Amino acid sequence: MASSKKRVAILISGRGSNMTAILDAAKASDYPAKIALVLSNKPDAKGLETAANHGIATEVVDHRSFKGDRKVFDAALHKHLTAHRIDLVVLAGFMRILSADFVAKWTDKMLNIHPSLLPSFKGLDTHQRALDTGCRLAGCSVHFVRADMDSGPIIAQAAVPVLDNDTADSLAARILKAEHTIYPHALELVASDKVSVQGMRVRINSDANMLCAHQDQQLIF
Ligand code: GRF
Q1: How far does residue 32's CA lie from ligand 1's centre (Å)?
Q2: What is the pLDDT of residues 117-127, one digit of tens each?
Q3: Pairing relation of β-strands 212-213 and 201-204?
Q4: What are phi and psi of 70, to 5 degrees?
Q5: CB of 162 closer than 8 Å to CB of 139
């Protein structure tokens, strides 16, 4: 019998710790997604090795071979995704801006994680900017991807406290732990069709989406 699991591609550019968290979660027999492909735009991304060690198919689409032609790069990406019969795309530290045409092809089927409580602090240096503006709470967001950078309906967020002695690095490390919790959780909700999108709002049909406080003080929504 054919598996009903959604076929997922994870796109990375670097170390791939969120990818690893998802690969670990996907080992559970009742996880509704199968990671069918890990693709990187950088041949030397550390996460490629980790994925291969997990027995996952890996591919590289090196953006440098496309000489800045974003549309042709995106078309190449799309070709790889369709060749692997991908249902859902997960961006996990994928450091390329995707064209509006590509994003439109994957509306409500492409997720991203961003290390801030969106819509605050889109873009880079989120942790330092949260410190510089005196936030008492920081966090991370998983959202469906839209053409504007770091925008789109939010599926899950985790808030973590900002401590008096935090540096950008210590705050980033605390947020990264929360990322590793919410990304597999958000993908599970989407892959099991428990999520519907109405405008910018995501409705979740699951008891599993309750607020919970973890030992390390993350608040997860
Ligand atoms: C994470 O902080 C993620 O939120 C951001 O890029 C970083 C990727 O880290 N989009 P990793 O490659 O998953 O370890």
Answers
A1: 23
A2: 999 999 999 99
A3: unpaired
A4: -65, -40
A5: no
The verdict on the CB of residue 191 being under 6 Å from ligand 1 is no
* Per-residue pLDDT reduced to its tens digit, 37-74: 999 999 999 999 999 999 999 999 999 999 889 999 99
**Which residue bears the tokens 């910018």?**
200
- Map out the domains of the chain with their CATH numbers: 1-106 (3.40.50.170), 113-221 (3.40.50.170)
184 ligand 1 Cβ < 6 A = no
pTM reported for the whole predicted model: 0.95
Closest ligand 1 atom to residue 176 Cα is 2
Separation CA 61–CA 46 (nearest Å)? 15
Cβ of 17 closer than 6 Å to ligand 1, yes or no, is: yes
Closest by CA position to 182, among listed 25, 62, 51:
25
Rounded CA-CA distance 193/176 in Å is 26
Backbone angles phi, psi at 127, to 5 degrees: -70, -45
Cα–Cα dist 78/36, whole Å? 15
Q: Which of 10, 15, 17, 18 to mutate to test the pocket of ligand 1 (most atoms within 8 A of CB)?
A: 18
Amino acid of residue 154 = I
Instruction: Quote the strand ranges of 5-80, DSSP E.
Output: 6-12, 33-40, 58-60
Ligand 1 atom index nearest CA of 91: 10
